[in-house]
Each structure stands twice: as C-alpha cells, then as structure tokens.
C-alpha cells in the first residue's frame, strides 16, 4: 500500500531534503538541491522509480520513531521476535557534496537486516550504470554520480537493477551506510566518517535550537516548526522553499498537483515575523537579503515566486513516466503560476521590508528606493484585476485580498515616512492612495447583506484570505465587518477547526476540476483573528485541535482532507509551520520571550 503523506519524516542538510517512511524507505530525494531531479522518486511512482529501504527482514512498519532532541536526526525503532534495532537517518550539513547517512544500531538481542537501494536519476527515469570501485558501489548516468559504502563492509550484491545488502546486528553493534552524490566528471568525493558526522550534526542542531528565544506554551511544537523552516532553507542564499516536494495532491486522484520547490513572496512577511519573534535574526536577515536580490529590477516584472537563488525562469512541464501519488496525475515540475499577476506580492514585499526595518535587521540603503519604485508601479496597477493570492488558474478578478495588500503597501510607506521624514518620498501621495484603496474595498468588496467581505468585487464567494484584514491593520479587530467576516468564513468555509481557502465549485472559480482539502495556514489565521477579536479561549481551543493534526514527528502538509482524515498537498509545508509558530506566539504574548527578544 502507498504510505500516507503523514507517514513520512524529513531529514535534510540545508540544501536539499529527503522523506523517510515508517517502513524505513527513503522515497523522495532531490540531489544536489531542492529543485534538482530526484534520485529517489517512489513517492510519485513506485519502487522502480527509486527508493532506499533499510528494515529488518520480513518487517512492514516500524514500532516507533522520533527525532533526537531538537534536531533533524531521525531515530526509527523496530522490535522483532529476536531483538530490537534502531536506524538513525540524517544528512550532515555539507562541506562540498551531499551525504545521506543511515546508521543501524543493535539495541538488544539480534536482528537480521536488509538494505535495498534503487538509484534512478532524473525523477526516476534513468537507470544508472553500477560498478565497484575502491570499496564502493558507484552509480553513474550523465552528469550524476552516487557512491555507496558501508562501515564495516557487509555482504552486498546487485539484483534486478537494485543494490542489496544483508547483515545481522546484535546489541551494541553498529553498521553505517553512506550515500554520497557528486558530479560524474569530478574525482571521488572525500570520505566522511558517519559516526563523527552524527555527533557533529547533533551538535549543530543543538546549538541552533538553543538560540530560540521562545519559552512559552507549546514550545515543543514551535521549535519543531522552526527546525522545519530551517530545514527548508537553502543555506547558500537564505531562500526558503515552500516545500521540498512536487505534485503531492491537494485532491487525491485529481489534477491539483504543483511543484513547491521554490520560494514564494507571499510567505515573506509571515516568515520574517516568525523568525524575528523567535530570535533568529541571522536567518531573518538572510531571507530579507534574498528577497532584495530576487525582486530587484523593473517593478512591472515582479514575480510571485523565484528559484532558490532568485532564478526567474521556472518553466512547467509534466513527467508522464510517473503515475503520481496514489495515481494523482499529472506530475509537474516547474510552476506556470510564475507568470501570473498577483498584485498582493507588492504589499508583501513592502510589508516585509518595513518589518525588517522595525526589527533593526540592519540598514540597506537601496531597500527604500526599491520600495518607492514598487509603490510607483502599484499606484496605478492596484486598480487592475489579477489572479489573486491562491494562483487561481481562471479569469482575472478584482480580488479583495490583493486590494488590501495594496493598502498595506501604501500604509507602510506612510508610516515609514512619518517615522523618518528625512527619507525621500511624498507621504501625502501615499496617504491619498491608501485612502482610495480603503474606500473602494469597503464599497465594492463588502457584502452588507451578509456582513462579510467577499473574495472579489461583485462576487458572493468567500475567501479565507479576508481573515487577514484585521492582522494587516486595514480595519480594527472590533469592527463589525471584521467580526461578520470571521463568522461568515467559519460558517461557509469551515469544518470544526479547519478552513478551506475558498469555495471550489468547479471551473467557474479556479479553472480546475475537483476540490481540495482545508488549507492549514488559513486555519491558523482563523485562530489568530479570533484572538484579536477577544475570543482567546476559543482561539486556543482551535489551535490545540490543529496541533493534533500533526503527524507523529510534528510535521504538517499544506492541507488536510476533512473526509479522508489525512494530510494532503506538498509536505512538509513551510506556510503551515509558519502559521503554527505565529499563532502559538500570539497566544502566549511577549512574556513568553526571553527579555532580549521581547525588547
């Protein structure tokens, strides 16, 4: 049976990441970067598309598993008839080439173990040539090469286009496997001691986690989410991918399958807020700097997403040889939504840079000039329709959230100039724009009969993004229109603690067939807005229900299937974990932060 999405755990080295199932199989790994071709793609196909399973012979799923402390080192325990064994999976932060390390350690008795690895480069489409060299099994195909070794050496052979190993571990014994990728034209990579690498990896994560300033309730959930955000960071540039996967379906068996291995501007403000609040100013500054580099250029050319280093071309194509997760096809790489016009991103960028300035992340002389340039374009463009926050592949509309974020852009400019009149810019000009946007949204984006803001002008459909109206400052939390919007969204888009992004009644809304699960970030927004309106206990109860949806190692995907009671969408999802951190900290208040982080 295909594992459920929540059956996977994450390991990574801050440049790429792998998913490890409860059955001991690594079913997804892109090398050498998040956005590279996958060498293990069983997640979106079957074992012949690449995987690496280490487990006791004849065993199905593990007994239990968990991360070692506040780290990204995974321990998986197997209790068998003859003994107990654990498998330690991790990826050390690389010096040069990426390594996947799997250490098998006998706990008690003895256990017969099996390792089966099928390397398939280019998303499971290429079977490499395998050979022996200097104690390694070496796989080569085109630009890719991977070296596999064990310490101590164990019985290994080739069978049916796979590499298999068989060995027995007794209590106290250890066997380590190391898989190293490198360009096929380069010399053999330097050997890394897996046992020393384990100690250094645990030390690195312990040091990083200790920097967290949050000391309030739900700290374990918060630190796990922050570790996940760190794991989704591309270390060389500071960019944070939305997820390490592509094409995990929002609608199992359907076509809503997208590539999320890129960096979205829509996440910028909430990401910065979470990192700054937790005391991770270095990571926040790196994300801010990535943002400044990525968006530099003509304001009219601002994209909604970029590559790990700010790449602009992310062409979308389909991989027909992969059947898709639970037959959810097509499998896509690249993302055509990069060509969409989403005017809210101008507000996201300006809001992010305002937040960075307020947090004292360091003065960037060109940042203000960039904001003025973006505002100059948005001053007239905000009146135009767009595809909106949710990348709807239907006709352009006047989305309320896009207009609200245009208001945010003007508002942050006014506030910046009021605080520092020495800066260039016309506060009166941006104040007039702010007033014009506010007036139009309240006139055209609000349904007075139902007392709620709508998804777009002239529409009766609702959108969970309108829950952000109070958070942005567009209206005060106690405004009757805010309260009415909360109640309407909860009634029409909600189910218990969960909230869908918008109504999916077919192609008339988003241009796609089928439906989707509840969007977890929106569910956290509901808790945030309830707290802002004084319904704190209600918000806390909802938040705790959302925490219960995490998998056994604390991870969340993009969405939750209300009917199937399972996680859906790309996994793990940065936006969901950002929402978790933000809501937990809002509920706890500043007293939950160490003094230097709260000041």
Describe this structure in words.
The chain is α+β, with helices and mostly antiparallel strands. The chain has a 15-stranded antiparallel sheet that branches. Helix 5 crosses helix 6, helix 6 (344-358) packs parallel to helix 8 (400-419) and helix 8 packs antiparallel against helix 9 (427-444).
Please state roughly what percent of the residues sit in beta strands, choosing from under 5%, 5-15%, 15-25%, 25-35%, 35-45% or over 45%.
Answer: 15-25%
| Largest β sheet strand count, sense and barrel closure | 15 strands, antiparallel
Low-confidence spans: none
- The whole-angstrom Rg is 25 Å
The tally of beta strands, per DSSP, is 28
The N- to C-terminal Cα distance equals 52 Å
Short description:
This protein has 599 residues and is α+β, with helices and mostly antiparallel strands. It contains 16 helices and 28 strands.
Task: Give structural attributes.
16 helices; 22% strand; 15-stranded antiparallel beta sheet; single chain; 599 residues; three-stranded antiparallel beta sheet; alpha+beta
Topology record:
Elements: E1 8-12, E2 17-21, E3 25-30, E4 38-40, E5 51-56, E6 64-67, E7 74-79, E8 83-90, E9 99-118, H1 121-124, E10 129-133, E11 136-141, E12 144-151, E13 155-159, E14 162-170, E15 174-183, H2 194-209, H3 219-231, E16 233-234, E17 239-240, E18 263-264, H4 268-277, H5 281-295, E19 305-306, E20 317-318, E21 332-333, H6 344-358, H7 365-381, H8 400-419, H9 427-444, E22 446-447, E23 452-453, H10 469-472, H11 480-493, E24 494-495, E25 498-499, H12 507-510, E26 518-519, H13 520-532, H14 536-547, E27 559-561, E28 566-568, H15 574-588, H16 595-598
Antiparallel strand pairs: 1-2, 2-3, 3-4, 3-5, 5-9, 6-7, 7-8, 8-9, 9-14, 9-15, 10-11, 11-12, 12-15, 13-14, 16-17, 18-19, 20-21, 22-23, 24-25, 26-27, 27-28
């Amino acid at each position: 049976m295909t594992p459920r999405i929540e059956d996977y755990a994450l390991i990574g080295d801050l440049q790429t990441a792998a998913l490890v199932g409860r059955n001991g199989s690594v079913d997804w790994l892109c090398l050498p970067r998040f956005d590279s071709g996958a060498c293990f793609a069983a997640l979106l196909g079957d074992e012949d598309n690449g995987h690496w399973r280490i487990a006791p012979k004849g065993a199905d799923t593990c007994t239990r598993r968990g991360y070692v402390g506040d780290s990204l080192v995974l321990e998986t325990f197997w209790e068998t008839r003859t003994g107990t064994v654990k498998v330690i999976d991790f990826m050390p932060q690389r010096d040069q080439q990426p390594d996947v390390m799997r250490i098998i350690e006998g706990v008690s008795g003895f256990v017969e173990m099996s390792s089966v690895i099928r390397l398939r480069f280019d998303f499971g489409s290429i079977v490499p040539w395998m050979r022996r060299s200097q104690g390694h099994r070496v796989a080569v195909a085109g630009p890719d090469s991977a070296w596999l070794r064990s310490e101590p050496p164990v019985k290994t052979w080739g069978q049916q286009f796979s590499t298999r190993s068989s060995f027995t571990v007794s209590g106290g014994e250890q066997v380590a496997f190391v898989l190293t990728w490198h360009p096929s034209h380069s010399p053999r990579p330097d050997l890394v001691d897996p046992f020393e690498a384990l100690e250094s990896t645990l030390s690195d994560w312990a040091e990083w986690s200790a920097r967290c300033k949050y000391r309030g309730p739900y700290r374990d959930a918060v630190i796990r989410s922050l570790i996940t955000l760190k794991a989704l960071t591309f270390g060389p540039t500071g960019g944070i991918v939305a997820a390490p996967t592509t094409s995990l379906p929002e609608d199992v068996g359907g076509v809503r399958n997208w590539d999320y291995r890129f960096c979205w501007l829509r996440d910028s403000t909430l990401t910065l807020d979470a990192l700054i609040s937790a005391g991770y100013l270095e990571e926040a500054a790196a994300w801010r700097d990535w943002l400044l580099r990525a968006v530099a250029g003509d304001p009219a050319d601002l994209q909604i997403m970029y590559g790990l280093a700010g790449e602009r071309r992310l062409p979308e194509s389909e991989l027909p040889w992969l059947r898709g997760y639970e037959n959810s096809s097509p499998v896509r790489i690249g993302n055509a939504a990069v060509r969409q016009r989403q005017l809210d991103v101008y507000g996201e960028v300006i809001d992010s840079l305002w937040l960075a300035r307020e947090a004292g992340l360091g003065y960037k002389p060109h940042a203000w000039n960039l904001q003025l340039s973006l505002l100059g374009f948005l001053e007239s463009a905000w009146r135009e329709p767009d595809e909106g926050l949710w990348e709807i592949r239907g006709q352009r509309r006047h989305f309320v959230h896009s207009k609200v974020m245009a208001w945010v852009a003007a508002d942050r400019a006014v506030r910046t100039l009021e605080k520092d009149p020495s800066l260039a810019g016309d506060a009166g000009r941006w104040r007039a724009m702010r007033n014009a946007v506010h007036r139009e949204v309240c006139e055209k984006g609000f349904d007075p009969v139902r007392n709620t803001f709508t998804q777009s002008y002239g529409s009766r459909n609702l959108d969970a993004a309108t829950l952000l109206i109070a958070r942005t400052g567009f209206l005060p939390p106690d405004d009757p229109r805010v309260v009415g919007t909360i109640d309407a969204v909860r009634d029409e888009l909600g189910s218990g603690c969960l909230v869908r992004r918008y109504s999916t009644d077919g192609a008339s809304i988003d241009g796609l067939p089928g439906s989707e699960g509840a969007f977890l970030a929106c569910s956290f927004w509901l808790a945030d807005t309830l707290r802002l309106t004084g319904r704190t206990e209600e918000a806390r109860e909802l938040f705790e229900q959302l925490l219960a949806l995490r998998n056994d190692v604390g991870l969340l995907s993009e969405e939750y299937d209300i009917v199937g009671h399972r996680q859906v969408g790309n996994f793990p999802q940065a936006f969901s974990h950002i929402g978790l951190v933000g809501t937990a900290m809002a509920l706890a208040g500043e007293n939950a932060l160490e003094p230097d982080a709260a000041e």
